[in-house]
Amino acid sequence: MEKYQNLLVVIDPNQDDQPALRRAVYIVQRNGGRIKAFLPVYDLSYDMTTLLSPDERNAMRKGVINQKTAWIKQQARYYLEAGIQIDIKVIWHNRPYEAIIEEVITDKHDLLIKMAHQHDKLGSLIFTPLDWQLLRKCPAPVWMVKDKEWPEYGTIVVAANLSNEESYHDALNLKLIELTNDLSHRIQKDPDVHLLSAYPVAPINIAIELPDFDPNLYNNALRGQHLIAMKELRQKFSIPEEKTHVKEGLPEQVIPQVCEELNAGIVVLGILGRTGLSAAFLGNTAEQLIDHIKCDLLAIKPDGFTCPITVDSDNE
Length: 316
What we know:
Elements: E1 6-10, H1 19-31, E2 34-41, H2 44-48, H3 54-75, H4 77-81, E3 86-92, H5 96-106, E4 111-115, E5 117-118, E6 125-126, H6 129-137, E7 142-145, E8 155-159, H7 168-187, E9 193-199, H8 204-209, H9 215-236, E10 244-248, H10 251-261, E11 264-270, H11 276-282, H12 285-289, E12 296-300
Parallel strand pairs: 1-2, 1-4, 2-3, 4-7, 8-9, 8-11, 9-10, 11-12
Antiparallel strand pairs: 5-6, 7-12
Helix pairs in contact: 5-6
């Protein structure tokens, strides 16, 4: 079965240029498939007014939907004229992230593409609450696009977690590389894939509280552990040693720095999708680092991920 043949692109209603749609066309031109341009719209004032009958409110909603549909068609006109298959769907929904995820599930989309806004001064990505909901809860891979052209010789960086604290990271690392290799070879002639892992230094308070503790010995042992794990990982996929990077420091600092040094077009990472108390207490590594990234981001969930959004079979 071919992958990445059914792309869902979230349209940004606040600007005329659509980088996410542009990136989807880039993928489809090289890999084939179809694109659905999707936009959930809602105006609370239409539902609160008592001066309109239900039929009049429905007519107004349909008018907004038709207007937005025509606007998206105008945005996509050059792609449509070039023969790119783009379906356009606008729906009335008061929870955009639920509407998007329900569409992913119902129509079995295998890739979700959305624009992430950019901080003008720093060039890093800015993620909205909608972005976070999609990153945490969408069952399909989520590609967050920066508003810039793909680097001509941009690398692809896979951020692996090589700590041996939780076994599920091993399976997720394999999945990240497998999906990255698959997709990159579909859309690039000679993809330049690099593996990256960061490891933390010894906490200062341990060295203070334990006089016999040698932080240098600890850091060297930790680096050695990560180098061995990286070697095992790269050999499984025949990735050259010079394209693997084990760096000392926190992931949220190391990953953006290495991505910039390598002129990365995209960084691929796993996201567990923690929500509620789990997210509050444990945090999400991805959420601590991606606001600093200056390139595209592809977030992938582990196998067995349970999406908290469900779709009734009667509505499919």
